[in-house]
Every structure is written in C-alpha cells, then in structure tokens.
Design a protein that fits this description.
There is one protein chain. The protein has 375 residues and is mainly alpha-helical. The chain has 13 helices and two strands; from the N terminus they run αααααααααααββαα. A two-stranded antiparallel sheet has the order 1-2. The protein is flat, with a radius of gyration of 29 Å.
C-alpha cells in the first residue's frame, strides 16, 4: 500500500531544526555551558515530543490521501473479481453445502425430545452447541476463502476439526454404558475454564484498566469448581479432564485416535502453523512466484482447496453426529436420505475447489511457456 509521498524536507532535517530550537530555548547562555553531554541530553529529551508531532502529521497526511486509498481499493477489487471468476462455482457449492448442514440441524433444535434421560439430554445439547458453533466457524472459513486468505481459513478449519473430534467422542459414548455421562462431564467442565479465566482477569484487571469482578461471582465460581472436583476427582481440573476416564490420553491427539480421526493429524499440524508463532509458520509464509521468493503479506488465489475440504469434512462430521446421535429413536429413512444428500454436496464442493486450483496451475504453466517463447 502506498502511504505517503516524500516531502522536500526530510524528517531528519526537521529533527535537526527541532533540536537547534530546543537548544536555543534552553537556559544555555554562555559558550562554556555548551558541552557534548548537555547537547545529547537536550536532543534526547526532544525526541519523544518531536516523534509524536511528526507521527500525528503523517497520520493526517495518510488519512487525507484519498488517491492512494482509491488505488489500493481498486487493486483489491480487481483481485477479488478475478478470484471469484476462478472459484465462483466452488464458493457457491461451499455456501450451499454449509447452509444445508445448518438447515438439517434446525429441526433437531426446535423439536425437543422429552423421552431422553439426563445423559441423553446433555449429549443432545452439547452436539447442538458444537454443530451451531461449527456452522459459524464454517462461515468464517468461507469469508476468508472468499477474500483470498487460505492460510487464515486453514487456521479456522483447525478449530472445526477440534469441534468434530469432541462431537465424535460424545457421540461414541452414547453406545458405551461405562461412559454414558461423558456429555454431562463435558458441559460441567465449563466451570474449570471459567474459574481459571476469572482468576487471571482478577490478577490483571488493574493493568488492563478494568473493574474487578464482583466477589459474589468469584465465590459462586469457586463453589461450583470445588463441587465438580469433588464429584469427578482431581484430574477433572486439567484441560481435557472431562475426557480422562473415557480416554486416558486426554488431549486432542488422544481423542483424535479414540474416535478414529487420526488420519487428519497431518492437516491439523499444518493448520497449527497458522495458529501459533513457531518458526515453521514463518518459513511456510514464504512462497515462490515466477522465479522469485517473497514473504506472503496479502491475498492469494492458490491453496484454497485444502482448508475448504477440511472445513467441509468437519461440518459434515458434526452434522452426522447430531442427526444420528442427537435423538432417542433410530435413524429413519428421511434422515438417511438427508445424510446422503449432504455427503454429495460436500464432495461436489471439494471437487470444484480442486478443479479451480488445477485451472490456475495450468494457466500459470501456459503463461510461463509463453514467456519462454517470446523473442
């Protein structure tokens, strides 16, 4: 983005004039009073107010520079137009697939089943909540893909995968009498995170410039926390303490293995590089384009297929878990037909993203070939 044009007088020139004026304004009257240390002291004291003044001027200049803003906006609009020309059908198929997944869950929410026992009610509630959040995150993935940010979409697709893993564990427990209360544990584990967040906030609220939490609320959290630990044991205090009895290796990788989703571990690790600040993520953010390597700091039209496919698969898994395990009666023919339709929709959407990616790759190869043939 073009920020501002270079002025005739540089910032360094202005600063030197500023320091000279500061020296004149000081109480130094005699030539003997002027020494190197005193000049450095005055110059040092002058830096911060000068930088603040110039910074405000630069900000005002950039804000007034509508021409640069229009140029950047036009460039961005052109990229988005070309992106949607390439991926238009894929974007449409993605939107349809996720909208249908959301629609298929609507009847589950509006038709409560009074025949469900406590554990089944908890499972239904948790699966509905996971599915609803999954649909929202799928929308965020779409927004990022639709604007040329596949790495950001991959990071959000990672969250969808985690939601699908937890939903898989809760659904799996419905057929296991020994762990029928897993959803109850999962829901009651909320107090562990809530208490931890409250303690952290209470410690930092002064530095944040915020008001402290009310003591009554803290006491209520503490009472709920102690009750949950007394009920389920000290392991319940851990991050995945709700799943410890169901899966002794109670972490996301352990649950992934338990619900037979470990084949996605490679994609999950890949996506983790877009969530965390490890050096691997920096190296992955360098890309080669027509013989040159550069940092990726903006949009791109490549790499959309992987996050799209990962997100579509996770939304489908969340929907299957809800439709199959979110009610007491066995699956009827209507539900089965809906599941097959949803599977077709997500498969078709994934294929369209791959097709668009192949077309872009082929167009690039043809462009490079034309350059080699140019005399």
């Amino acid at each position: 983005m073009r920020l501002f044009t270079r002025r005739k007088e540089s910032i360094q020139d202005k600063f030197e004039s500023h320091v000279i004026q500061a020296l004149r304004d000081s109480n130094i009257n005699e030539i003997n009073d002027i020494n190197e240390d005193r000049i450095k002291e005055i110059a040092s004291e002058a830096i911060r107010p000068f930088a603040a003044k110039i910074g405000a001027q630069i900000c005002a200049s950039i804000t007034r520079d509508r021409k640069s803003f229009r140029i950047n906006k036009r460039t961005d609009r052109g990229f988005n137009k070309r992106l949607r020309q390439r991926y238009g059908k894929a974007f449409e198929a993605y939107a349809i697939s996720t909208a249908c997944a959301l629609e298929s869950a609507t009847m589950q929410e509006v038709n409560p089943d009074a025949s469900l026992d406590e554990n089944e009610q908890a499972t239904r509630f948790a699966l509905l909540g996971l599915h609803a959040k999954g649909c929202r995150v799928a929308g965020e993935v779409y927004a990022l893909l639709h604007n040329g940010y596949p790495e950001g979409a991959l990071a959000r697709a990672r969250t969808l995968h985690e939601l699908a893993i937890v939903a898989g564990a809760l659904a799996d427990s419905t057929n296991d009498p020994a762990h029928a209360n897993l959803a109850v544990r999962y829901l009651e584990h909320e107090v562990i995170d809530a208490r931890g967040s409250a303690i952290r906030y209470q410690k930092d609220h002064v530095q944040l410039g915020m008001e402290p939490l009310e003591q009554g609320y803290l006491d209520e959290l503490e009472a709920r926390f102690q009750s949950a630990v007394a009920k389920y044991g000290p392991d319940f205090k851990k991050d995945y303490g709700w799943a410890k009895e169901y899966c002794p290796d109670a972490n996301i990788a352990g649950l992934e293995n338990k619900v037979r989703m470990s084949h996605m571990r490679g994609y999950y690790k890949l996506a983790s590089n877009e969530v965390h600040a490890g050096s691997r993520g920096i190296f992955m953010n360098r890309h080669e384009f027509r013989g040159e390597t550069a940092w990726r700091a903006g949009k791109t039209n490549v790499g959309l297929a992987e996050p799209a496919s990962m997100a579509l698969n996770s939304v489908h898994q969340l929907t299957v878990m809800l439709l199959v395990h979110g009610k007491s009666d066995s699956m009827d023919i209507e539900t089965l037909a809906i599941l097959y339709a949803l599977d077709e929709l997500r498969t078709r959407a994934g294929e369209l993203f791959l097709e668009a990616a192949r077309e872009i790759r082929q167009a690039e190869l043809e462009f490079r070939a034309s350059l080699r043939q140019t005399p």
